[in-house]
Fold:
Amino acid sequence: MKIGFIGLGKMGANMTKRLLLKKHELVVFDFSAEAVKEATMHGAESAQSIEELVQKLPQKKVIWLMIPAGKPIDDTLEILSKTLTKGDIIIDGGNSFWKDSQARAEKMKTFGIDFIDCGTSGGVWGLQNGYCLMYGGNKNACDYTHDLYKDLATENGYLYCGESGAGHFVKMVHNGIEYGMMQSFAEGFELMEESPFAYNLTDITKLWQHGSVVRSWLLDLIHNALSEDPKLDTIRGYVEDNGEARWMVQTAMDLEVPVHATAASLFTRFESRQKESFAMKMLAAMRNQFGGHAVKKS
Structure:
């Protein structure tokens, strides 16, 4: 299948390589000329603009987006709505809020364009191992683009989840669960690091991958990190979030579903980015006021 691919960041670039290896034809565009040049070295055809990318595609055009959520998506859809025609297909493979994806599908429908929301998991390992894809939208459009999901994914790693928004909803929950799992591992390893025992944490990660209930790919990645830097001395304890856990907590509030672990792990990430917490200062001040407890001066 010949498709257009917009967005050649870490995920997008590797996805184009995997599609090219599977004998698909790609026309690519990115604001980074270097990223476009890299893609052409692997067999992709370049475009200098979105409009040119559309012109280079055959009838029944399919365009895959791997660009940041929010305004970049809407700006791109604005251009595509003026250049694509009835029956064409857009796939948003990035991390977009599921309600936004529903709204975008409705807007594109007015132009006769099908909009598919496809949650993509696999990170930088996807090129080698394959991706996990969860997608939603018009069933006929999803069936038409089936080979893309099949060839990008690991074996049994793709699923049609339902109508518009369903794919990004599943990906949102996936990432929220991921936050909780990561936080649990982080807390457990910190407890062992601070224990009175001289544990080799790298050995423990290897141990737990044999018969343990917590064996997982995340544990493999922890093992890799500790093998390279056993005390993580080269890493700052500063953790960003990509928005998906925020959306999950917001959605859980709307649906009145408790998501304790996800919420706690999200707030911990916020805390990691504070230079000095005003809340912690306030706690120290209150202890000093009611109990005369000493405070550490800044």
